[in-house]
Amino acid sequence: MKRVLPLKYITSLLLLVSFCGFAQDSELPESAIDSLRQTNWGFRVGINILPPLVSIIDKDDQGLELIADYRFKQNWYLAAELGRESYFGSEDFFDYNTKGNFAKIGVNYNAYNNWLDMNNEIFIGGRYGFANFTQKVTEVTYYNSGTYFPDYAFNPQSAQSDRLNAHWFEMVAGLKVETFKNLFLGVQVAFSKIITEDQPEGFENLFVPGIGRTSVNNIGTRFSYTISYLIPFKKK
User: Fold this and answer.
1) Of the chain's two ends, which shows fewer C-beta atoms within 10 Å, N or C?
2) What is the pTM of this model?
3) Which domain holds residue 164?
4) Based on the number of CB atoms within 10 Å of its own CB, is 198 exposed (0-12), middle (13-18) or buried (19 or more)?
């Protein structure tokens, strides 16, 4: 089946061909080019659609993440994410539950040079993240002798807390594509490194809201699939 290009791109192609032909005889005024490159600027809000989809499939992994950004320079955006997660995890000798809230704030830089009136992004950026959460052991598997597995030796009553905090930095990369006017679909990957965290006595944080599962080096990787809408304030 032949694919039909959107009318927006066909129009842009015809305009470009016309400009190239006209430029052979005279130079197109810079003001005319700038007017064609104008796009909407404003406040964009949306949601990471991955956590709700995962929640339907896996009842042990529940979450919600809202996203927002604001374009303050030609290629620069203030960006933020806010959410809540509840996760039931299982290791070889114990089960645990983590739940709490998180927030991230930072900037994105759009490295994509849009053509005419396109408003897409291929971006990189950075975030500072913060989470407030609880983490507790829900079940422990014992040896026949009645002792705990030695690498995870703890008292289940002490391996829980309602007042845990974590702070981290993360690098992000992704893209956003304007599928309809002011409506964007996006994908993003984040690499996080915890800089400070609270832990229950004798136990490690294996999952941090806003990061996900963490490695022994306090590093996490997280994917997002987003849908967002731009509320335009001006056109530049």
Assistant:
1) N
2) 0.77
3) 40-235
4) middle
Q: Is the domain of 17 the same as that of 50?
A: no
CATH number at residue 119: 2.40.160.20
What does the pLDDT profile of the chain (236 residues) look like in tens digits?
434 444 444 444 444 444 344 334 444 455 545 555 678 899 999 999 999 999 999 988 999 999 999 999 999 999 999 999 999 988 777 788 899 999 999 999 999 988 877 889 999 999 999 999 998 887 776 655 555 444 444 555 555 677 899 999 999 999 999 999 999 999 999 999 999 998 876 677 889 999 998 887 899 999 999 999 999 988 87
Q: Are residues 19 and 108 in the same domain?
A: no
Residues 149, 181 share a domain: yes
85 in the same domain as 194: yes
CA distance 2 to 33: 32
